[in-house]
Design brief:
- The protein has about 475 residues and is of the alpha/beta class.
- It folds into four domains: about 110 residues, Cobalt-precorrin-4 Transmethylase, domain 1, CATH 3.40.1010.10; about 120 residues, 2-Layer Sandwich (Methyltransferase, Cobalt-precorrin-4 Transmethylase, Domain 2); about 120 residues, Rossmann fold; about 120 residues, Rossmann fold, CATH 3.40.50.
- It binds S-adenosyl-L-homocysteine (SAH).
- S-adenosyl-L-homocysteine (SAH) binds next to helix 4 and strand 12.
- The site of S-adenosyl-L-homocysteine (SAH) has 24 residues, from helix 4 and strand 12.
Amino acid sequence: MARGKVYLVGAGPGDPELMTLKAKRLLGQADVVLFDRLLDPRMLEGVKAELIDVGKNAGRHKLNQEGINQLLIEKAEAGNIVVRLKGGDPYLFGRGGEEALALQEKGIPFEVVPGVTSSIAAPELAGIPVTHRGVASSLVIVTGHEEPGKEAPLDWKAIAALGGTLVVLMGVSRLEQNVAALIEAGKSPQTPAAMVEKGGWPQQRMISATLADIAKKAKEAMIESPAILVVGEVVLLAGKLGKKKIAILRPAAQQKESAALAESYGFSPISAPAIAIAKKPLPDDLRKRLGKAECVAFTSANGVNMALHSPDLRRALAEKMIVAIGPKTAQALAMQGLTATVPEEYSSEGMEKMLRGKCRSILFLRSAQGSQYLSEGLKASGLYVDDIALYEVVPSGDPLLDELIKSANSVDIFAFTSSSTARFLIERAGAMGLEKQLRLALAAGTVAAIGKPTAKELSRLGVVVDIMPEIYTFEAMLAVLRELAQ
Ligand code: SAH
């Protein structure tokens, strides 16, 4: 049988869109793909080849290098097109050169396909250009994970003397020793430094400090591999060029849309649902209660979507005057073919103002925790008010929220879209024993409240609110945050 061929392919730092066109094409043509554990599974979506995980996780070797070389040879000798997919670029600390030599020795055709290396891309995605006019005109890339005795030792003195930017790969496990060696070799302890973790992944994080403090801070933030240490004045540019990270605490179903919106405003969204929506059954006497009301009021898009599952209700509603608290709620109604009136101010108060004089009897279809004072105020002005709880807002129990709480100190902005998001975030942090850290992170970051009740609840919880938009929508909140960042 004809001999196969091996492609040593760089996959880039993590984001599947940062793979090259050639990498993508070869994956489509491969019979066998050998890949590393840390690669994003989306890269292999739709790939028909035999997929072999030869991943190595620091310390836990699955297949050693010799084993990988052997497997590449076997698969190629069996006549396969083999793609050896490697993180970043195959020839930068990727042992791609060794694999190439092993193949050459056996006379197996191979080709290397360069990839976007994390050593440049990870700092870049965190807002750090590795060189910058007037700031750094050289870049040194070293491994931080020297195996004693195996490699020629790094000349820290020469590295420290060079100035420019230093990037240390495989830099987590020996961070403390490496930083100490650099300082010992004469690098100023005040040099700016950063750790970029999982650059280009959805969970990308960066922490920065002085060289003297970076190891301590990385430990506190529980920075894990893969991460890169960047040392040099260029780190300071991240303050200007880095995207601000915004934690979105809305229910899971709203995350995708909210994240896209946050991205379009130049933020880097972190999905962390603090709340979930638990549907409640509609009451049996719904029709009767609806009959008594002139107006029907919705206070959230969630409420609309739940209520209108019932076609019966949709028909009955078509005859009513419908009021929506804001444009998103009105939009959800419009999707169901129902037209709603929206108050000038998108809040309970705005709604109350609008309803007075327009309706004598109102039925609210909303969450069980809906703003009770709204009904009270309207009742006090002599209106007939009825209330049906469509759903309950409950703690999400989402592991993404726990992740956020653990790394809260790397979050720039906390976006609170309801009082329940505030309450459940703090409650969850308390249950994890991390309330103090969370409160410190809230104090250091920007706290945004979508509207008055949310701001009020945050204050009650002892959290200082930094911004609240004039119009109470998520998008208006993002607009204010963007203005603030500029
Ligand atoms: N060939 C790869 C590097 C392999 S060495 C490349 O060109 O990117 C593995 C090291 O690369 C990790 O220990 C870490 O320091 C770094 N690394 C790889 N991917 C990374 C990422 N997405 N974010 C931060 N560092 C990463």
